Amino acid sequence: MESRHKPHPEQLHYATVLHWSTLAGFIVLIATFVVYMFGWLPANIPLQQLPQLWGLSASEFLRATGTQTGWSWLFMMGKGDSASLLGIAMLSGCSIACILAVMPDYAKSRNFTYLMICTLEVAVLVVSASGFFTAH
Amino acid sequence: MAKPNSGHHPNLSYVLLLFWLVSFALFCSAAPAEAASAIPVVDPDAWWIWPLALFVVCFFLGIIAVPAGVGGGVLFVPIVGGFFPFHLDFVRGAGLLVAMASALAAGPSLLKNGMANLRLAMPLALAASISSIAGAKLGLALPDNIVQTSLGVTILGITVLMVSARKSEFPHVPQPDSWSAALGIHGIFHDGISGKDISWQVHRTPAGLVLFLVIGFLGGLFGVGAGWANVPGLNLLMGVPLKVAAGTSSMILSMASSSATWYYLDNGAILPIIAVPSVIGMMIGARIGAHLLTILKASVIRNMVIAILLFAGVRTLLKGLGIWT
């Protein structure tokens, strides 16, 4: 027997946005990785050199390769390894998109407590994504 | 021997167990020696062996993770960190991505069928998101041996938790606390087994928030996800029914892992060649694991996962202490 009780409308809205944003993220993740692996785009760091580098710590890796921290990869979409970070960033951004999508629902139902919680969660995720904590 | 109508096939479970253990033993016997010498002598044209091995290992981890009721991250980090030549920074970054991707993929159906509750997840996810950034920041700042040793101790602690933790299908919550009442955290879910709608409410919300601060911190620090702690915390501490606890754990994980993943990404600690094959292998394996759920004997798989965690935990601890490098 099916339940007569349906989840809150904002929960269903969240689920819909989550479904499509995750699907888009996975498609981009796989497509860009295939491009990277098959060498259809040149890479910042040739694949053959990676075994000498992936045993280094992240900070040593950045120094050894001259890679910049933060969002620098976004401006190198012509490189296979930078491009394949796009899908990872899209998946990491799914929660932000979903929370932003349900905030008007909470505002409409005058649920200001959850509107505030959503605002704080988005702020935490956006500040983390911005690289603020890397610099400070 | 299987009962004809049990729905389980223990023989198949034992075959899978044997196959997995033989593969794993062969891999372990070969990997450390190769890993130790891989960096200086690796054939430049053979770079693809490691991502391929990673995909295969993650595929099998995904198969066993679902029937064992654990997230992929808790298996991924100690095993890949212990037996692959990648630095632990990149393994933890990939572990967070694996945990997050699995949680994101499961989220829509859990929310739609009421097995996850957004109002329950949001406040706890906020606490876990904040602390997971602190954990990630500390994890990338600490010396390798300290992180490795702490990870080994944590994995052994998780193993003990898996062995000893009780579960309560429908915990009794006589009265919601004032916080959960104010936040409107309650719900009704449809139990497919009994065919009934079951209403639930929660208590000890302030203690839950504190617990999720700690869980988020550990998740960010070690990149192990947090399903192993989320579910007991929601179920035993806050009184959430087990199925809703498992579903809501996934939602909390998707948000908390996201904040830590951004930190690892910003700091160059996510390498696509490590992270992407892991995510794809784990996702495919988890889909097969979900289908095998009805025919495999879950207790056999669970015992196998406990044995693997114990072995990987000891290996990680000894590696951190410089005894088994």
Structural class of chain A: mainly alpha
Global geometry of chain A: elongated
**What do the pLDDT scores of chain A average to?**
92
Give the DSSP E fraction of chain B (strand runs of 2 or more residues).
under 5%
Give the overall form of chain B. globular
Structural domain count of chain B: 1
Q: Work out the count of structural domains of chain A.
A: 1
Number of helices of chain A: 8
What is the total tally of β strands of chain A?
Answer: 0
Oligomeric organization of the protein chains: heterodimer
Mean pLDDT of chain B: 84
Poorly predicted ranges of chain A? none
Number of strands of chain B: 2
Residue share in β-strands of chain A: under 5%
Secondary-structure element series of chain B: HHHHHHHEEHHHHH
What proportion of the residues of chain B is helical, as a percent range? over 70%
By secondary-structure content and strand pairing, the structural class of chain B works out as mainly alpha
Biggest chain-to-chain interface with counts: A-B, 70 and 71 residues
Describe the biggest sheet of chain B?
2 strands, antiparallel
Given as residue ranges, the uncertain stretches of chain B (5+ residues, pLDDT < 50) are 1-8, 28-41
